[in-house]
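Fig. S4 source data, part A: sequence.
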Amino acid sequence: MNPWWSRRSRVLRWWPAPACLVAAAALSQLGATDCGGGITRDPGFDLWCGQLLCAWKVEHGDVRRVATWHEADSGVELVDADTAIEQFTPVDHLDGTCIRFDLIADVAETAQAELSIDIYGDGTVERTYPIPTAHWRPVSYAFAVKPPFTGIRFEIAKRGTGRAVVARMRAVLAKGSCAGLPQIDGGPAPLAALCTTAADCASGICAINDFFGTLRCSGCDLTHRCPGGQVCGFAEPGPAERAVPITCVAASARVTGEQCVGDLECATGICSHRICSACRPETACGAVACEPAYAPGPYLCAPGQHAAARGAPCASNDDCASSACAGPERRQCLDGRSCATDANCPVDDSLVPGPCTTVGIQGGSCN
């Protein structure tokens, strides 16, 4: 098998070349698209975490799993008079700019249901499509999005007391289906969104964001300096569908194990491989090697060898001669960003987020 790089998560990882980027059940009644075109997770509303959908977030109101026209299919009923569910998908203009949204719905005349499109997932709805009142009627919408863009939030909402159930929903890339359609413009892009020129960004700065030369909207760069006491560095992670933002942050505020752009962000004064570290691998630590404590993690002197003295930086108990490293745990995604749950991490090519893993101790010090 040939190696294949997962571009969607922007993490350099090697996998066997897949037959299809996204596996999904064929929606024969809706006109299934070619394999690999799906951009939403759980198109059949099959994944439930207790009483809630796993892949869709309930914005407000209540939902429940219900039967549909076929015993093998389930749907989601929007129960309350004002109910909405949403999913923020990481599709961007590099994937495609023409999208088709298919679903089957059972909507009573006393209910008003609609599909909303929110480019960037910033809360501003750029386009709304009514879902017609019908009994298990397939409906389809095609729309084009003006590039560049990064991420789309899909919202399905119901108002009114009548029954509204949706099932077999799927959004797909649909090249060639948007000829003549006006493009939806998401407006100026937020920090960490893809860009091609400064004019694309709300910040007015489009700069290289990573080792791969990706251009993203930033709050600062080499020609746009930060005010006194601040440096150009990584902010706290935002939506997982975008990269970690680069903007003006407090100098020397990041501790060992946190992400960094440059030395001035780190309390140690050392940013190695974009992680605040205690040493640099090219200069080593005298007689011992300077190596990462975990991947991707901070560079320490002889990590895991119980060699560090009291007060020395550490990332685990195994780094310390005392076998005691004090500090809060470090949880991070595969791309190195901090996280609390899997939902904070970029998705893989199956559109599954995570994992958010405990990797060590952040800003640790040997006791």
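Fig. S4 source data, part B ends here. Residues 3-184 form a domain with the Jelly Rolls fold (CATH 2.60.120.260).
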